[in-house]
Amino acid sequence: MAEEDEAGWQRRGTLGLLSLAVPIVSILVVGGLWVGMAVIGNAGRDADGPRVTFEVEACADALPIVQERAEAMGLDVTAWRAEGTHATLPTTLPADARSQALIERTLTAAGRLIVRPAGEDTPIATEADLAEATAYLPFLDAPKVQAVLVREAGKRLKDHMQAHPEGSLELMLDGAVVTTRRNMPPEEHGELTLDKIDAADDLARMDFAAFAGIVLQHGPLPCDVRLATTR
Fold first, then answer.
1. Which stretches of 44-89 are DSSP H helices?
2. What is the tens place of the pLDDT at every residue in 28-43?
């Protein structure tokens, strides 16, 4: 009888250990799949759409920025040619119209960032105060953009947030409010997250992160850019 009780206890103990292991294994499997998807997303794929030529008209100082944005989006800039206020870029676009429109928008966006108290006009920081801006993929969420302010601007932001604990911030890109943030808790390191608050779905949030990450990292444009596309 003692042997049977011991065997039964061992069986129940083994099953119990297995049941405890299920959540751990699930986390590892889900995490592995997420990492795999992130790697695939970062690798991207070759464009398989129409062959076009972008004709760019802008001030001379803007053309290198447009070229940097094009390269950051994965366009082949080896054929980029610029002279004076005109540049051409023969390239192959993705097949879907949504991506094509996003590329054109990214090449011509002003890239003006304003961080201000909600409802006020005076900014606390602008794109001139950016140290860097990077799109990133949070765990189990849509992509976002992390904007990091230089030390002086970060301190200015922290001081304002501490002095107005009941208030909030508006993060604006090219004149539109894209993100709001409460002042509490205050930001200690000058880091701000941009995530389009009125996006229709996660795909729109992903497009915004791709757009904002590039224009903030490689901008702003010092003048208006006109883009024509010939096929």
1. 63-72
2. 444 444 444 444 454 4
